[in-house]
């Protein structure tokens, strides 16, 4: 005849749940076995095994112990349990999205490190922040940038993202290396040539003048000025700049010098 009651060690061995966990469930009033009236030791019965499986099943669904506790007393589940399951479903979907983003970010970071061997800490943190907040950046861009351009700026294929990040990494590396050099230095000019060529490739355009066409709103209209500034500020909040104030000031200066003749040249072609 099968044993009808179990000591805590027997119950733990039979169910595969540790004695420590059973103690914890008892302390939290989730699974309370009877007590031997003479010794005070916990005595588990077959009904406790069903209750334990109930706990384990709801834990498998990702429910917290506080939520599980609410469902330990009733012998049946009613329609209210559907709401709990739906809430849990939403949470699990969100967790899965977060895990997927983190896994892809790890793969992309490994790719960068394998190719570069060593990466500046500030640059890597900036790239990781960008990976983490890709969805937010994409959402913020809606209504500011044309939809067809947004698709090009935020490609789905990880391989495309890796290649872009590798080139951006090279750009920031050169900024730090060439900072302080004059605007007409060949290395500086080549750095900016490569950078703007990369941007044009991403948005599938042929000239810098076309870049003004990426916006879905009129950037010449002063009414949109505040909206554009807020957009830039929010992007900068999500993705910290990996360069110092000195490097940023130098980059702004050499870029202005670089862009001037190009704009004049393109204006003359019209």
Radius of gyration: 30 Å
What is the overall silhouette? elongated
pLDDT averaged residue by residue: 87
Order of the strands making up the biggest sheet: 1-3-2
> What structural category arises from helix and sheet content?
mainly alpha
Order of helices and strands: EHHEEHHHHHHHHHH
Q: Can you give the helix content as a percent range?
A: 55-70%
- Proportion of β residues? under 5%
- Low-pLDDT windows of residues: none
Number of domains: 2
How many DSSP E strands? 3
State the end-to-end distance.
Answer: 98 Å
Number of helices: 12
- Summarize the main sheet: 3 strands, antiparallel
Keywords:
Multidrug-efflux Transporter Regulator, Chain: A, Domain 2; 3% strand; 12 helices; 3 strands; mainly alpha; 270 residues; 2 domains; elongated; three-stranded antiparallel β-sheet
Walk me through what this model shows.
This protein is mostly helical. The chain folds into 2 domains: 5-72, Multidrug-efflux Transporter Regulator, Chain: A, Domain 2, CATH 1.10.1660; 83-269, no CATH class. It is built from 12 helices and 3 strands, in the order βααββαααααααααα. It has a 3-stranded antiparallel β-sheet with strand order 1-3-2. The longest helix has 37 residues, at 80-116.
Task: Set down the secondary structure blueprint.
Blueprint: E1 5-6, H1 8-15, H2 19-27, E2 34-35, E3 42-45, H3 46-60, H4 65-70, H5 80-116, H6 121-132, H7 134-141, H8 147-153, H9 158-178, H10 186-203, H11 225-238, H12 245-269
Antiparallel strand pairs: 1-3, 2-3
Helix pairs in contact: 5-6, 5-9, 7-11, 9-10
């Amino acid at each position: 005849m099968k044993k009808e009651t179990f000591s805590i060690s027997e119950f733990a061995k039979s169910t595969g749940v540790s004695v420590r966990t059973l103690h914890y469930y008892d302390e939290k009033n989730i699974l309370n076995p009877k007590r031997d009236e003479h010794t005070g030791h916990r005595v588990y019965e077959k009904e406790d095994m069903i209750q334990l499986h109930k706990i384990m099943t709801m834990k498998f669904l990702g429910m917290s112990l506080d939520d599980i506790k609410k469902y330990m007393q009733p012998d049946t589940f009613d329609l209210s349990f559907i709401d709990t399951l739906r809430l849990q479903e939403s949470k699990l979907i969100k967790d899965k999205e977060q895990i997927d983003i983190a896994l892809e970010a790890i793969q992309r970071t490994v790719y960068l490190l394998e190719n570069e061997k060593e990466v500046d800490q500030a640059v890597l943190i900036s790239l990781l922040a960008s990976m983490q907040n890709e969805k937010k950046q994409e959402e913020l861009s809606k209504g500011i940038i044309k939809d067809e351009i947004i698709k090009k700026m935020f490609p789905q294929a990880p391989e495309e993202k890796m290649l872009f990040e590798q080139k951006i990494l090279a750009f920031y590396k050169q900024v730090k290396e060439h900072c302080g050099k004059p605007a007409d230095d060949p290395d500086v000019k080549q750095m900016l040539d490569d950078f703007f060529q990369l941007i044009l490739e991403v948005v599938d355009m042929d000239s810098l003048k076309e870049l003004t066409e990426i916006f879905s709103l009129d950037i010449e209209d002063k009414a949109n000025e505040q909206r554009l500034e807020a957009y830039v500020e929010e992007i900068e909040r999500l993705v910290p700049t990996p360069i110092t104030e000195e490097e940023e000031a130098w980059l702004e200066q050499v870029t202005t010098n670089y862009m001037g003749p190009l704009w004049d040249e393109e204006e003359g072609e019209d």
